[in-house]
Design a protein that fits this description.
The chain is an alpha/beta fold. The protein is built from 14 helices and 14 strands.
Length: about 475
């Protein structure tokens, strides 16, 4: 589809707004938006929140003791910032943890390989497993292969990820993380290795859930090779005169049920209508979760606080949710949708910040029919931050998907992601990778957005139930 230029889109939005007689911001509201942006660009509260979270808690694996400490941290932080109606909403979930991991080429070129176990991978047998490596250049080749012939072998899916600004390459490459083990197991394989779902050229493998939904262990042991190690294994297969044998040794822990929870704090409004924003509190264990998703937690808390600092109550209540256990299957998001199903009619708009630490460059909407023109008003107000009107339906963020599918409208403040997948789900996801200027730009944009969402006349419509299109 041909992309529309930003200038043309702006003209289109203005024409649409005029045609639908969308409410414009009043002069006072427009001045408040500009004031919020100014304050956001100078505010360091988000940095303080992020520094505290990643230093005082560190990594926060779903269902772990560290995630429990993070929930207590969240409650304390909300209290100190003056939020109201603060609580933890608990839920049960399965628990997985890595214990140890190693891999090596045994023959014909003995050497270690850098790997990380994928989430929900079962352990190998005691002492590890060894098998002949069979390489597939892409997931579809494995899934199209004969149903027999891989018995006792180790499958290697060597499919690379394309670097893109919007993360579209991830959506394609991540399929092998959840489907490769299923396809390999169905053909009798003993284990599976995948090229990391990431764009880094360093020896930092990318973890991530290997079972869609995270409700059970995977069928066979599964691990990700760093991209340089995937290159090395591919070269070994090319140069070897015969089979290449790899040994994989994974030890993991699994519990059917542990407690996690969502942490909630609110800025009460004049009405009980809700603007729901937030980030997910949990992280993978390899880094400290600064970008995924401490950044989103810090941005949304700080932005909501800027709106709270305005004189008087916002029209609508702003609810900040620090979702639990996103990484292993959206457990907190699904629990929230279930626990709040009877009040979803009060959920006027929702969005999550969960795409690393890049600057916001696009504002996308997914509103109900007849409400789209309100997006033009919001987009126009954000243009001073070099944010353009988007031309695709908003995703909204992983943790708002369950309520989006139940009809709640969403927006996406889309961040640039050129280098996000160099760091995503790796040991490199640490505070030093965060750009303070980008953090402030995000806070400014989110503060302006949630203020406008709170104050605009009328709602944003409703989406078709189970609207699953992206």
């Amino acid at each position: 589809m041909k992309r529309i230029g930003a200038a043309a889109l702006a003209l289109f939005f203005c024409a649409t707004a005029a045609a639908q007689d969308a409410p414009a911001l009043s002069d006072d509201q427009a001045r408040t938006v500009d004031r919020l942006i100014d304050k956001g660009l100078e505010d360091d509260l988000a940095w303080t929140i992020l520094e505290n979270l990643t230093t005082e808690i560190g990594a926060r694996p779903p269902g772990s003791e560290a995630e429990a400490r993070a929930r207590d941290w969240g409650v304390d932080k909300f209290k100190k910032l003056g939020f109201k109606n603060i609580r933890i909403e608990p839920f049960e979930m399965p628990y997985w943890a890595r214990v140890s991991e190693s891999a090596e080429i045994v023959a014909p070129f003995p050497q270690p390989l850098t790997v990380t176990a994928l989430g929900q991978s079962p352990s190998t047998s005691e002492g590890g497993i060894a098998g002949e490596v069979v390489r597939f250049s892409a997931l579809f080749e494995l899934e199209a292969s004969p149903s027999e012939g891989l018995e006792g072998k180790i499958v290697f899916v060597d499919e690379p990820m394309t670097r893109t600004q919007d993360g579209a390459g991830y959506g394609v490459a991540v399929q092998k993380r959840s489907r490769a083990a299923i396809a390999a197991a169905a053909r009798g394989a003993a284990g599976v290795l995948i090229r990391s779902v990431g764009t880094s050229r360093h020896r930092t493998p990318h973890t991530g859930a290997s079972v869609r939904g995270g409700a059970s262990l995977g069928p066979i042991p599964a691990a990700a090779l760093s991209n340089p190690d995937a290159d090395q294994l591919a070269r070994a297969l090319k140069l070897a005169k015969g089979p290449v044998t790899v040994k994989l040794d994974l030890k993991t822990e699994w519990k059917d049920s542990v407690q996690s929870g969502n942490v909630i704090g609110e800025i009460p409004g004049q009405t009980d209508e809700l603007i729901v924003i937030g980030g997910h509190l949990d992280s993978w264990d390899l880094g400290t979760g600064a970008l995924d998703d401490g950044f989103g937690v810090a941005v949304t808390m700080a932005a909501a606080k800027l709106v709270d600092n305005l004189k008087g109550k916002p029209r609508r209540t702003i609810r900040v949710v620090l979702w639990g256990a996103e990484e292993t299957g959206l457990h907190g998001a699904r629990a929230y949708a279930q626990q709040h199903k009877d009040e979803l009619d009060r959920h006027v708009l929702a969005s999550e910040s969960d795409f690393g630490g890049g600057e916001i460059y696009s504002f996308d909407i997914r509103f109900g029919e007849g409400a789209e023109a309100k997006g033009a008003v919001m987009a126009q107000a954000l243009q001073r931050l070099s944010i353009i009107p988007g031309n695709t339906p908003a995703f909204g963020g992983p943790d708002v998907l369950p309520i989006r599918d139940l009809g709640v409208p969403v927006v996406s403040l889309r961040q640039t992601g050129w280098d996000y997948f160099d760091l995503h789900h790796t040991a490199e996801d640490t505070l030093d990778k965060v750009d303070p200027d980008a953090l402030r730009q995000n806070v400014a944009a989110w503060a302006a957005f949630i203020y406008m969402a709170s104050e605009m006349d009328g709602d944003f419509g409703r989406l078709p139930v189970n609207d699953a299109g992206d």
